[in-house]
Design goal:
153 residues; mainly beta; 7% helix; elongated
Length: 153
């Protein structure tokens, strides 16, 4: 069961990791799993992954850094005996080199993950409520992936 869960997590994990910008502010990221926890219940299993990520922004606006670091936590829900997750939710947090912060929530979307910046300060405050669609580009190994995102607004 753990191998099945790990395989499903790895397939979804990169689609779960991202955060903030307006139309045209897309980018790419690399995620490395730094913690994994499995919680087994009577009818289901929860899998919590924490990743350490580097985001590289495409055409960032003036005053924005080309890259920043982030920490993302994903929780996937599985029904007992099922290989595919029932659902997931993730939160990504970032403090950029200037000390401005952003928090994004990721939820399921037919094309991968819907990413919504829920809060931000400094230059990121204007991006609160902005949405992106993210997805996996390359699954490098069990703990490392690359992904990309594009604005929906």
């Amino acid at each position: 069961m753990r191998k099945i869960l790990a395989g499903s997590i790895l397939a979804l994990m990169p689609t779960l990791v991202l955060a903030g910008g307006h139309s045209g502010l897309g980018g790419t990221g690399t995620g490395i799993t730094v913690d994994n926890e499995v919680m087994e219940g009577k009818t289901g299993v929860l899998v919590k992954n924490t990743t350490s990520d580097v985001w590289t922004w495409d055409n960032p606006p003036e005053g924005f850094h080309k890259a920043t670091a982030a920490t993302c936590t994903q929780v996937l829900t599985f029904a007992v005996g099922q290989e595919q997750p029932v659902g997931f939710v993730a939160t990504c947090m970032s403090v950029d080199p200037d000390g401005d912060v952003s928090v994004s929530l990721l939820t399921p979307h037919p094309d991968g993950a819907l990413i919504t910046q829920t809060s931000g300060t400094g230059k990121w405050e204007a991006y609160n409520g902005v949405k992106w669609i993210g997805g996996t580009d390359i699954q490098i190994d069990a703990n490392t992936s690359t992904y990309s995102w594009k604005a929906t607004d």
